[in-house]
Structure formats: structure tokens, C-alpha cells
Fold:
Amino acid sequence: MIIIAENFNSSIPHVHQAMQDRNTDLLRNRAKQIAAVGADYLDINAGTFLEHEAEMLQYLVEAAEGSGLPYVIDSPDPDIISFMLNKLQRKKQLINSITLETERFNKLAPIASEYDASLIALLMDGGNIPEGVQQRLDIADQIISKLREQGINDERILLDPMIKPLATDCNAGQQALDTIYQLRKKYPQVHITCGLSNISFGLPSRKYLNRAFLLQAMAMGLDSAIMNPLDQELLSLCHAGISLAGNDEYCMEYLEYFRPENEE
Structure:
């Protein structure tokens, strides 16, 4: 399971405030906490700072440097993504995100190839979230084909099926699960990710929906999530889900995580 920590996103009010105040100690300690619980990537986003986005992304990298985690460079601007990858000069970074929109695709695919970066690919062919499972599958076919033509293999692609909030569509959960299942069958080497909290947007007690959806989606083939790994209950369920999905031989990962001293 590829766990992408969402905790360094400037759209989160306390993160924005910490960035604005240059509270490096707070951010550095948070990054170390995220690394300590086993997250795989740290998503860095400074979109709320608009004209200062590149500067603030660099600041986030500096603040998180002690974590040792690779980054998800999360920006709507391909030029800023390229700038950040050039600054980092490291392997295993991840770009968030590419779509079928021609200008964005033509800029980001070569950048990913140049820096050997992986890509989160949104199943969108324009500015709107697609309707229905089949439309998402059709978009997946197109974007995977185009990325393969650019020399980007399936293991470097993370498909995001664009989950709609349950509050606006009572079928959004089932539709997402069906899409994940079909994608996993058709593209076994491609990773499937999502912004986990999207499903619960606009509803109360969101943590329960997020946790329930994570386990259901993992059973359908989800193998990555943009989530809060500092939610201990959510992370514990994630580890249990890995084992239940048959992706933990002899339950070794489960046994390592749930040591007796960690149990109540």
C-alpha cells in the first residue's frame, strides 16, 4: 500500500498558518512523525500562496528534509513542478497530477520522463469529473496508452478515479468501488490511488466514512491513498486491510505493525 501523507497541504488552515508564520519546528516535527508511522510519500502543496507558490514549496521541502521521505509535487503549474524536480534532483518523486488535457499532458509527460518521476493520472479528459464507470475506464485506456508511448511504464502510473462526494451523489461510493475493481482487473501493474477524504466531503463524522471506504476500496484493488497517516485508527485499519486483501504473505507486515506493546 502506497501511503501518501496529505498533511503538508496549504489548504489545511493550520498548515497554511504554520507556513505563513515560518513555523519550521512545527512542520519539521510533523514531517518526522509522518515518516515514523511508515508513510511512503509526503504530498507538498502551496497552492493557497498563489504568486509565492514556488518559494513556499521550497520552504516545505526545507522544513521536511529530516523526514527522508520522497515528495509528491502537487501543483497546477507544470513549470513549478519542473522547477521543483530540478531543485530536488532525486529519484522516486511523484507528480500530482496529469490529465488528458492536451497542454498539460504535453508539458508533464516529458518532465516525468526526464526526471524518472511517477505520475498521478486523474481520470479526466477536461475540466469536469466524468460520469459513470465506463467513461472513467475509457479515459484510463487513453491516458495509459499515451503515457506508455512516452516511455512511462505501468508501475510509474497511479490512476485516480476521481471520487465524487457521497453528499452530492448517493451512488458515488459504489461507482468508485466498481471503477477500482475494473481498473485493477484490466491493468494489474498500474497503481490505483485516491484522495480518501473526498468521499466524505460535506458530511458529518467524516472519519467513519473515510475508514469504511478505505477498507472497501482496498478489497476492490486500491493500493494507494492520499490520506492522514497520523490518524492512528485509520492507519491501523489500513494495515489490517492489506492483510485481508491477500497482500501480506504470512501476515508478516501485520505482525510487525501490531506488536503486543502497541495493542491495548
Summary: The radius of gyration is 18 Å. Residues 132-149 form the longest helix (18 residues). The beta strands are 2-9, 41-45, 71-74, 94-98, 118-122, 157-160, 191-192, 224-227.
